Amino acid sequence: MTLTPEQQAEIEQARAKENRTLRVTAPGMEKHLYTAHPVLDHGFVRVIDYMGDDSAICQAARVSYGKGTKSVQNDEGLIRYLMRHWHSTPFEMCEIKLHVKLPVFVARQWIRHRTANVNEYSARYSILDREFYIPAPEQLAAQSTVNNQGRGAPLTAEESARVLEILKTDAARCYDHYEEMISDDGKQGLARELARMNLPMNIYTQWYWKVDLHNLFHFLRLRADLHAQYEIRVYAEEISRIVADWVPHAHKAFEDYRMGAVTLSAQAMDCLRRMLKGEEVNQENSGMSAREWREFQDVIG
Amino acid sequence: MTLTPEQQAEIEQARAKENRTLRVTAPGMEKHLYTAHPVLDHGFVRVIDYMGDDSAICQAARVSYGKGTKSVQNDEGLIRYLMRHWHSTPFEMCEIKLHVKLPVFVARQWIRHRTANVNEYSARYSILDREFYIPAPEQLAAQSTVNNQGRGAPLTAEESARVLEILKTDAARCYDHYEEMISDDGKQGLARELARMNLPMNIYTQWYWKVDLHNLFHFLRLRADLHAQYEIRVYAEEISRIVADWVPHAHKAFEDYRMGAVTLSAQAMDCLRRMLKGEEVNQENSGMSAREWREFQDVIG
Amino acid sequence: MTLTPEQQAEIEQARAKENRTLRVTAPGMEKHLYTAHPVLDHGFVRVIDYMGDDSAICQAARVSYGKGTKSVQNDEGLIRYLMRHWHSTPFEMCEIKLHVKLPVFVARQWIRHRTANVNEYSARYSILDREFYIPAPEQLAAQSTVNNQGRGAPLTAEESARVLEILKTDAARCYDHYEEMISDDGKQGLARELARMNLPMNIYTQWYWKVDLHNLFHFLRLRADLHAQYEIRVYAEEISRIVADWVPHAHKAFEDYRMGAVTLSAQAMDCLRRMLKGEEVNQENSGMSAREWREFQDVIG
Amino acid sequence: MTLTPEQQAEIEQARAKENRTLRVTAPGMEKHLYTAHPVLDHGFVRVIDYMGDDSAICQAARVSYGKGTKSVQNDEGLIRYLMRHWHSTPFEMCEIKLHVKLPVFVARQWIRHRTANVNEYSARYSILDREFYIPAPEQLAAQSTVNNQGRGAPLTAEESARVLEILKTDAARCYDHYEEMISDDGKQGLARELARMNLPMNIYTQWYWKVDLHNLFHFLRLRADLHAQYEIRVYAEEISRIVADWVPHAHKAFEDYRMGAVTLSAQAMDCLRRMLKGEEVNQENSGMSAREWREFQDVIG
Fold first, then answer.
1. Which end of chain C is more exposed for a tag (fewer CB within 10 A), N or C?
2. Which of these, D113, D58, D69, B119, lies nearest to C119 by C-alpha position?
3. What CATH code is assigned to A5-133+202-259?
């Protein structure tokens, strides 16, 4: 990622100005504010603002559950209880606002998470920068043979080089033509809203993205997962590290009861109970299909 | 509204603790933080937290519209432009969290606004307090004869007194029985989730309510409107005053382009244009129904 | 539930009129259309309309996953795969519209599911009927001693009788007063929007409720669960039976992978794997709290 | 648009099969079912399913407003009343499911409407077709000088030809390279999820899109508007024609009270009232900025 000196100055200026507030603050989050965390070759994640911390989750829960909640449990125990039992509304009481720079094909996956607020850079108004995602060679891989939508074995050095050459050359040529089409130097120049259609989907865009903690956890569960495409997963992982500093108890509970958790079907639970009693269970007497049985074996490993 | 000394102490304690933050702060809002603003006889509105200010709206808009936006317009002009042209996403970048105490029949209207986060006091876990909304005598009125859903002429003093007597007595008796049913003094005591069904809908409940500024404006437009029921309107009006201190430019634009604005149909605009040219327009040649024509007359007054 | 002869005639008339359509129809659902399925003492659930069936879920999935999906799997296998791997969007492609009559305190829980469309009977416009939920004696129970929000042991016959007497008498008196307040017989009559506040929360209301299948399954998972309050659970169970006739494959997958499924934390999975290898695991060496360990024991039976 | 013979056969097969149903049907919509309406050079809109008609809107409204609603107004009058007074929930009781084929840069605007259900063709699983949007020459225009985000004067024939040449050549070359990268003929072949990043944003994608009528009207108001980009507007216009056949009363009300309507600010209403009384009003004494005054003049034309 290359921040312009101007952008870097803006960030430093924002970080230099400290305000006084009666609001709850999260010290672990203050240190991240405004700083651009690099992701991929030109992307980043920046925290612009946040609302609440671990204690705000508990405070909201205690409105619901009344006085009883206050005495019985400390904050961490309460948060773990809420996460374990899918009481999601208290987690909605925290909010985060991020500035993200990301390739368009990643943005198209990301936006499918509907419960969030978004302000994206408009290529109707403004001219996109000449910045394209070019994968690191070790990220280039063949179509997976087991997972219909993922990638499998890495490409050979030779094939890899050929792919990178194509990606770079096509991006450069398309951008040259984009510039040429919109240029009004000695001619009219094509409207930006039209010219942008010539740009490939590895061009970078950027947006402000605001979301509550419950929906952010949902995003992280799907996008920090190993089945997610690498190029969105690295964003999810970066955000996950930031969240760990913001709401450490909630993040730990999320790791234990969501990311690291496993959902077992009625049939799988039945098999497990039988196995724990010493019964010999195999696919034939499991009530599962071959595929489910394989997935089950992977999980109880 | 009667805050217990304990609650009052909590508020003062929260207000006494000042934190340092790198986040944007809104000085006009800091003064409201935690303080309970009374509404109706036992209700209140309290700001628990907020995110953003007028400048945050502009900052988000400038991500979308790029460099051009920066130089051309000052913050107020930009905010007014965004509001006037229904560019709603930058307003979603501000967020507010309120603690509200309100009668159940008001809560039932309020919750119809779906794009918000809510944590309500649970009457399955906890015991509701003996607090009921009893209208001020001047609020008692007959069914409106012009508006099928509203109230019209005030009740006579005598009828008013009779109504208040009923409301007070029934509320007290129902609550006595609620207490009696759940009491486990010398008996089992009915479960709270069942006993609550005996309580009338003027009992107070409370919740944390978190919403973005765009959706809050939508709420205010509908609920601070004269057609809204008085008992929810007073909450909307109180919140509107708080918002004016929080984001003064956005609030002014909202007043001008939403609250004080009028939407005129294709037919009404056609009539207006003809009238401005000096033509005599009446219901017959207006293309409007009698009812629409009456509404139109009221508006151009 | 008592339908008026007029309502019954309406239902029969609607059922008598058969239309021709090119749309997908679900024969198992056609038989439910319009018929009021009784729930509680005066409530009901009626299917007003539906969109899609099992095949519509697959059709939508195949748009996403392209040609490959077509050949490999039959409809049932595909639906089970989608449910197991949390591919929720194809289930959103089915929609159902219900007419529900239910007590207000149940409606207050129900409405917390925000992703749905609702038209509720308005007590500002119209007069509520004299219909209250009075529990069957066997449903009266004491506050649970293990679950802070549920009910436990049934009440004794004597205490039960006393409770029923209170519920009936208070409901009747409050409704008498409601009628008296709004009556304009020889007086002005209080506006309905005010008078309704005197009614207890076991009065019945009604609404049209429209929701997609994915969000309906989420509702059913929470509300048909044993921890849900009995009075909303019976609605969820009735709806679940209807859904089983509408989209049998999707409903079966839901039963196996959601209702009957169990989510185990990272710690619980670790313990399980150790137990399957023959290791002796107890709370002390489990990494779980006493409460979590107890919940784990319940689950592995 | 070019449908393959296979797709055309599927459509004809679907249209040939008539089912019997007790559900409400909209004859005007039945004739559109499944048929692909061409939009742009390769795109289309197809109705896959629908729920409800004009009468369903009234039926839902009558649940809310009770018996009074039944006698007073006929269906059309009621629908117009609901639209005029922003009673939006009854319109949410109708639903439509469309199959849309559209260029990626249009899809990126479209998806910003969050309250809808979407299943998009996955370029991780499947290979995109070689189909690109190439504008008709008369659609090529320069950046607007008055509207920062739109297009203005048409390009000269010469400049236009040069732009079309670029768009066609770059699309073809990028697609050739896409095919070459994923090909496993004598090599490994790059994973599809990576190769797709080389494709320009005028490539076509497709999706199933399901939305309720209220949110569809909101979409149409913004996207059938003259300020919307031409390439999404033609989709909105095509859908609008279909909706006119589906719910003619609701569509007419939408045209009168939304599409053809104008919202005037508090200041503008004040000026209008003064002008109707014969006062001379100009920008100086209007309370409006120069820009607002110009917009006002355009509107009262």
1. C
2. D58
3. 3.30.1360.170
Nearest-Cα residue of chain C relative to residue D64: C121
Buried b (16+ CB within 10 A) or exposed e, B160-194: bebbbebbeebbebbbebbebbbeeeeebbbbbbb
Cβ distance of C299 and A269 shorter than 8 Å: yes
CB D221 within 8 Å of CB D259: yes
Under DSSP, the state recorded for D247 is S
Q: Do A166 and D184 touch (CB under 8 A)?
A: no
D78-107 mean pLDDT = 96
Measured CA angle at A7 (ends A6, A8), to 5 deg: 90
What residues of C are in contact with residue A266 (Cβ under 8 Å)? 255-257, 259-261
Q: CB distance A105–D196 less than 8 Å?
A: yes
Q: In the predicted model, is pLDDT for residue B150 greater than 90?
A: no
Q: What is the model's pLDDT at position C4?
A: 81
Rounded to 10 degrees, the C-alpha dihedral A21/A22/A25/A27 comes to: 60
Pairing between β-strand A36-39 and β-strand B141-143 as defined by DSSP bridges: unpaired
Does residue C178 contact residue C196 with C-beta atoms inside 8 Å? yes
User: To the nearest whole percent, how much of chain B has pLDDT over 90?
Assistant: 86
Question: B18-22, B100-104, C3-7: which has the minimum mean pLDDT?
Answer: C3-7
Among D15, D223, D258, D274, the one annotated catalytic: D223
Report the residue of chain A nearest C278, measured CA to CA. A276
Q: Is B130 considered catalytic here?
A: no
Which value, to the nearest 10 degrees, does the dihedral of the CA atoms of residues D86, D91, D96, D102 take?
A: 0
Spatial distance between the Cα atoms of D72 and B29, rounded to a whole number of angstroms: 48
Q: What is the pLDDT of residue B71?
A: 52
Please give the full DSSP string across A237-294, using - where no structure is assigned. Answer: HHHHHHHHHHSHHHHHHHIIIIIT-EEE-HHHHHHHHHHHTT----STTTT--HHHHH
**Counting beta carbons within 10 angstroms of the beta carbon of residue C66, is it exposed (0 to 12), middle (13 to 18) or buried (19 or more)?**
middle
Q: Which of B77, B80, B275 sits opposite D276 (nearest CB)?
A: B275
Report the percent of chain D where pLDDT is more than 90: 86
List chains touching B (3+ CB pairs under 8 A): A, C, D
Confidence of residue C69 (pLDDT cuts 50, 70, 90): low
List subunits contacting chain D, requiring 3 or more Cβ pairs under 8 Å. Answer: A, B, C
Binned at pLDDT 50, 70 and 90, residue C71 comes out as low
Q: How do the domains of chain C map onto residue ranges?
A: 5-133+202-259, 136-201, 266-300
Contact call for B21 and A17, based on CB within 8 A: no
Nearest chain D alpha carbon to A156: D188
Tokens 């010539």 map to which residue? A198
Smallest CA-to-CA distance from B11 within B41, B52, B44 is with B44
pLDDT-derived band of residue A129, with 50, 70 and 90 as boundaries?
A: very high
The b/e string for B54-88 (b: 16+ C-beta within 10 A; e otherwise) is bebbbbbbbbbbbeebeeebebeebbbbbbbeebb
Interface confidence, given as ipTM, is 0.94
Among A7, A51, A69, A205, most B C-beta atoms within 10 A, so best to mutate, is A51
Average pLDDT for chain A: 93
Q: Give every CB contact of residue D10 below 8 A, 6+ residues apart in sequence.
A: none
CA-based Rg of chain D, rounded to a whole angstrom? Answer: 24
D195-217 pLDDT per residue, tens? 999 999 999 999 999 999 999 99
Q: Would an 8 Å CB–CB cutoff place A51 in contact with chain B? A: yes
**With respect to CATH, is domain D5-133+203-259 assigned 3.30.1360.170?**
yes
pLDDT band at C70 (very low <50, low <70, confident <90, very high): low
Confidence of residue B145 (pLDDT cuts 50, 70, 90): confident
**Which pLDDT score is estimated for A70?**
56
